[in-house]
Specification:
Strand order of the largest sheet: 1-2-3-4-5-6-7-8-9-12-13-16-17-18-19-21
Number of strands: 21
Structural class: alpha+beta
Order of helices and strands: HHHHHEEEEEEEEEEEEEEEEEEEEHE
Largest sheet: 16 strands, antiparallel, barrel
Helix content: 10-25%
Strand content: 35-45%
Distance between the termini: 33 Å
């Protein structure tokens, strides 16, 4: 727009200058125009007679009456020519400006079709299918095979840069099973786009970067915390997809970030600080009219940061060292199965929570303790030009539960088995209550590109974690999450690329769990530990066809 105004002013100035320098030309031009327009009073009679001779008189009279001046057109002056050229230039500038703006909005896409098959051995998913009704941990063990689960996922990436110092980045995701549109009633915000449900698009990433200074960027929003390094190896790529590595987080979280460019100290050195604040709204506000009121629980706040760098002289690599702390781990408003609920006495057979089988907290503590985590990731690509990519990662956590739990109205034993008497009882505690709170997590893997055409890639990954490991990893397209396993997980895969936009991946995943997982666990005075033994084995075979758009 600014350019168009400048050009218009320049052309107008040129026209004015031309008329000032050559006034006689302008006067002559005007006289020529005046002389070229016929006057009905002075027009020669021969013209009228000639017209009457060639056209019937009625037609001639009609022609004169309806359009006496149509046969005469004024010649174009230099001013008119300049005006037309200015209008044409404005149109061209409008198109150029529109194209420039659209060039700053970029769309990308990815679509994958997924086939999963499972063999499962472990506790049933039904919390009331117990071998001992007095023991809520005595779920009946089952063996089950699910031979065919089709799903598909669409990801649409958006990047807009209205000016060089601002950039908006987002990703919309649709994840759905074939022929199934319902979902679990309680899906956390951290996995909103990672659990299959309906065909709606949901943002799993959406944030704004402001490059305030050459060495400082400020970011805010649902920042890219999903599918971080080294997940790109499984996606037939070496391109980084997220801010944090999988050793720290793999989910959908909103934060405020400060990124410092420290390349003047060391090439490729960056430092990042982040702050997260989780708001707990008032659950009694069922119509959402009081969104500014909290539930009575203060925000859960997380502070942390990381350093990123590369090791010079050894090829392409990536190193990340991170730390975060939760000074006061706030309680969540979590439902649990009601021990007094009897499915045999429920004629509706409706699923939870419609059948009244869930208990919600009746009292929440202010906080439940604290947690700190330190982690590191080292990743090399095409190591020593061998075609081998490999990584090694790990984390150490320190839990400090304070002995305060989330309370529920639990039934207490009575002399009459048909009588239900309830009492407010602290039941959920921060993991490791009554035990050592030191946790560990290790994660390693490699991918080898065969020296053939097409470039088939073979990969293997392994991860293991301790009894009270706290994970911020959410479910993936395997329909489970291996990184949150308190036990061991093994995965082998093969990637067959068809071209730069299309590849197929076949994988086998084994998850061998030893203990129940989660931020919170049952009262150790009742169950012996906040992470009771939970022997579970999942075998998963997956085939995906992925197209980049």
């Amino acid at each position: 727009m600014h350019l168009r105004k400048v050009m218009g002013s320049a052309l107008a100035s040129a026209l004015s200058l031309s008329l000032l320098i050559h006034p006689e030309a302008a006067a002559a031009e005007a006289n020529d125009v005046e002389a070229s327009v016929p006057n009905e009073e002075n027009a020669p009679n021969e013209a009228a007679e000639s017209n009457e001779a060639s056209v019937p008189s009625e037609a001639a009279e009609s022609h004169r009456a309806s359009a006496p001046n149509e046969a005469v057109e004024a010649p174009r002056t230099p001013a008119m020519e300049l005006e037309d050229r200015l209008a044409d230039m404005e149109d061209r500038l409008d198109q150029a400006e529109k194209k420039t703006i659209l060039d700053r909005i970029l769309w990308s896409g990815e679509y994958r079709t997924i086939l999963n098959a499972f063999r499962y051995k472990g506790p049933t998913s039904n919390p009331y299918d117990l071998t001992d009704p007095s023991n809520p941990l005595s779920r009946r063990r089952i063996k089950k095979t699910t031979s065919e689960v089709w799903s598909h996922r669409l990801s649409l990436g958006l990047s807009a840069e209205p000016v060089r110092s601002l950039r908006l980045t987002g990703r919309l995701v649709m994840f759905k099973h074939f022929g199934d549109g319902d979902t679990a009633p309680f899906i956390t915000d951290f996995s909103a786009a990672r659990v299959p449900r309906d065909s709606a698009l949901r943002f799993d990433q959406l944030w704004l970067d402001w490059f305030a200074l050459d060495w400082l960027a400020i970011s805010a929003g649902r920042i890219a915390y999903t599918e971080g390094n080294p997940n790109e190896l499984r996606e037939n790529s070496t391109v980084r997809r997220a801010t944090w590595g999988l050793q720290m987080v793999d989910g959908e979280y909103e934060t405020i970030n400060l990124t410092f460019n420290l390349e003047h100290i060391l090439p490729s050195l960056y430092a990042r600080l982040f702050y997260a604040s989780w708001f707990f709204d008032d659950d009694n506000d069922v119509f959402g009219g009081f969104g500014f009121l909290d539930s009575g629980t203060d925000n859960l706040r997380i502070f942390g940061g990381n350093l990123e760098l590369t090791i010079p002289g050894v090829g392409k690599n990536f190193v990340q060292i991170g730390f975060y702390t939760v000074p006061r781990f706030r309680p969540f408003f979590l439902p649990i199965p009601d021990p007094a609920f009897q499915p045999s006495n429920d004629p509706t057979h409706a699923p939870a929570p419609l059948n009244g089988s869930l208990l919600f907290p009746d009292a929440l503590p202010d906080d439940m303790g604290a947690y700190q985590n330190a982690s590191a990731l080292v990743e090399f690509y095409d190591f020593l030009d061998s075609g081998l990519d490999w990584f090694c990662a790990g984390a150490i956590g320190m839990l400090h539960p304070n002995g305060r739990g989330i309370s529920y109205e639990l039934p207490v034993p009575t002399a009459d088995p048909n009588e239900v008497v309830r009492q407010s009882t602290p039941f959920l505690f921060l993991a490791s209550q009554g035990d050592s709170g030191t946790t560990y997590f290790v994660y390693a893997g490699a991918r080898y590109t065969l020296p053939i055409d097409p470039a088939v890639k073979l990969g293997f990954e392994f991860n293991a974690a301790s009894r009270y490991w706290i994970s911020f990893a959410q479910q993936t397209d395997h329909l489970t999450t291996k990184l949150a396993t308190r036990g061991r997980a093994y995965e082998a895969y093969a990637i067959l690329p068809f071209n730069d936009q299309l590849f197929m991946r076949a994988s086998y995943l084994l998850i061998d769990s030893d203990y129940q997982s989660g931020f919170f666990g049952p009262n150790p005075a009742i169950t012996g530990s906040t992470a009771p033994p939970y022997e579970q084995t999942i075998h998963n075979v997956q085939l995906i066809l992925n197209a980049s758009l």
